[in-house]
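Feature request, filed as a ticket because there's no other form

It would be nice if the structure record came with a short human-readable summary line next to the tokens. Right now we just get the raw output. Example of a typical job, pasted below so the devs can see what we mean:
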Amino acid sequence: MVQSFFILSGEHQELARDELVSISKSYDIKTRHSVDSRLITITSTVPWKKIAKRATFVRYAGNLVGTLDDISKMEFPKSETFACRAINLSSKKINTSVLERETGAILKKKLDSNVSLSNPSLTIYLIITDNKRYVGYGDVMEHKRPTKIIKYPTELDWKLGRCMVNLARLKEGKTICDPFCGTGTILLEAESMGIHSIGIDFDSKMCEITRKNLTANGYGSNVINSTFEHIQKIKDKVDAIVTDVPYGTASRTSAAPKKLIQDFISVLPKKMKLVMVYKKGVDVALDKAKKYEIYRHKSLTRMIAVI
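Raw output as currently delivered:
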């Protein structure tokens, strides 16, 4: 088991934390985690890079090796150059530049390596919270992001789409279905992480836009021009449902939002994992769902439900 650290960007912190845990648990169900301010520590068999390359709201990540008090005893990978980066997550004012210089001087002798502030091959993180002073190390985080050649004003934000796919706890090679796929945001994010996808939309124009967006990225997802009831015909090919239920001008159906969600849920296969975003205020009973409230602007707050 290894300990990894992840420093969140500050957006939607509960959602961001649960996304990290969900990614790790999709590979290792015995994952453990702890929270200290915006620092999330994960103990599992999953390397930090595997989690970080999928995570949406992570700013820094790496291996956690201990606390600053024991830095002279710690082992770090050999590298030609290194840099110290102090990150203050505490409520106290700390001179991070001084801390970086002092620690860098100690490590320069220990590592027999040169300091490079512009392009280090190893970055050593000094993470200060109100509880501890942690030490970790990492290198460049890599993210593969799809491009979108055709967009729509009311489409789902890519960050929420990516996070929702991760909340479904699926490994690469599994398949999600988005029965209201619109311009394909959720499908694109899933495919970019190695998760197969199937899109359904009853609007043929939206299906064509989704196909073009997928093709532009080299993805061959199946996009079906049909209603959400088509899920029943492909249920054996799907491991989870991830979707943004339309409302208002984004909805091209005469059904009221509550009725649409009720009808949609009624056709879902039993025990199928569901991650769904919908407009707050739609009073729908979702037993045992974990819910997240996402404020967009004064007239729109979205809810993400994970069932």
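Something like this underneath would help us a lot:
The longest helix spans residues 96-111.
The two ends are 29 Å apart (CA to CA).
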